[in-house]
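Hey team,

Filing this mostly as a record. A colleague (T.K.) asked me to run one chain through the structure pipeline before their review meeting, and I want the input and output archived in the tracker in case anyone asks later how it was produced. No errors, nothing strange. Just documentation.

Input sequence:
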Amino acid sequence: MSINRIAFYHLETLLWIDRLGTFSAAAERLNTTQPAVSARMRELEQRLGSALFRRDGRTMSLTPAGRKLVRDCAPLLRDMERALLGSGGFAEASGVVRIGAGEIAAASCLPPFVAALKEEMPGVGLEIEIDLTANLIQQLLTGRTDMAFAAGPVAHPALMSRPIGKVALVWLASPAVAAAFGAGDEAVPVWSLASHSPIHGRMRDAIDASRIAPRSLNLCNNARMMIDIVLAGGGVGIFPEPMVRGEVARGALVELAGMPPPAPVEFHVAMRVADTEPVLVRIFEQAARLRIAPPIDAGQ
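Output structure:
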């Protein structure tokens, strides 16, 4: 057994394969190629003198020896990372962290969080992707992202999450459309986020409890575009309050009278339970202390 020829990256790669389930996912996480990951595992097996993977056609799973190595090495690598960070602090941390966020969370709390994070960890590269909640959770589970700010609740045994606040929703329209609605023109085009968004469900519930008979129900996967359409007089919409404060404050959008207030949407930050890298744990702890900004008139 050539232990002196086993490098840190061999064991790190093995752990990421175990965490993410495939060589390709581990390669993406480690910013390398799948052939490079395969080569590292062949080297590790050769130098240990034992098979770590059981190959069955195109699928691959860890052997008992592979599972034991993962179990034994995971805490050692975690302690080594902590020791290295302890000597230089998080200011010396490096690597790339991928963060997924919904538009609402991105507009409400992400910019100041990212700014504070870059001040504490200037050497850590961030990749931020904006998407709908269903996609964010899938990307997190498959290892395409490391952390997600998503509409909750987030319930999956492979994930841990913390609530970061609730966002109020409001029915809005341009002044002209709102005036026509108030005068009895209730058959208006309605805009909502896509059907797998929590906001879509709130919209459906509100319509069922209201006098609206939509002329048409229109979906858009981009909240900012939806706001612009309603600003232009293209109908009415249900919007996250933090994203429309400016438009409401200057009178470009007004609240629809008589509409039942939709239930707020709670947001969570989530990461995989298996991810114990100190940098990721630190970022998650910081994110868990965030609070999405409440409505302007909250508490008044």
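Quick notes for T.K.: The longest helix spans residues 64-88. Confidence is low (pLDDT under 50) at residues 295-300.
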